[in-house]
Amino acid sequence: MPVPPAASRRTVLRGAVLTPVAGLGLAACGGADDAPAPLTGPVELGPEGEVARGGAKLYRDHNVVVSRSGDGTLKAYNTVCTHAGCPINKLEGTKLICPCHGSEFDATTGKVLREPAVAPLKTLAVEVENGTLVARPQA
């Protein structure tokens, strides 16, 4: 019976180098199993004055973004990416950027600005209670 050729030193080293890199790629695509839990009740975010007119503020600890239009109207969205369930951790102006695959969302509308995500962010209710922003799931 013929003996299969032994792996070359180069083949073994290449496999040792690429294995951790492949693992990182799989971890970045974690998806829904690792997704943060959605809001189940009201959560206090911070002082109302933290969100300027025409701006937005990302509350990473609660996976919420709140924006305020020029007329003072507040809107809030869940900041768990609709593509793979990654928590969005970056806000540039009013653009949210997902760290996993680069999806981008408008923090004032929740709409997708850049794929791979295609579904908008989930809308949350937001109110001011005693000077504090409070977000909750929409009824």
> Main sheet?
6 strands, antiparallel
Strand order of the largest sheet: 1-10-9-4-3-2
Number of strands: 10
Q: What is the structural class?
A: alpha+beta
Describe what is shown at a glance.
The chain is α+β, with helices and mostly antiparallel strands. Helix content is 14%, strand content 32%.
Question: Can you walk through the features of this model?
Answer:
The protein has one helix at residues 9-28, and strands spanning 43-47, 55-59, 64-68, 74-78, 90-92, 95-97, 104-106, 112-114, 123-129, 132-137. A hairpin with a 5-residue loop joins strand 7 and strand 8 (112-114). It has a six-stranded antiparallel beta sheet, with no helix packed on it. It is elongated, with a radius of gyration of 21 Å. It has one helix and ten strands, in the order αββββββββββ.
Q: What topology emerges from the helices and strands here?
A:
Layout: H1 9-28, E1 43-47, E2 55-59, E3 64-68, E4 74-78, E5 90-92, E6 95-97, E7 104-106, E8 112-114, E9 123-129, E10 132-137
Keywords:
elongated, four-stranded antiparallel β-sheet, alpha+beta, 10 strands, six-stranded antiparallel β-sheet
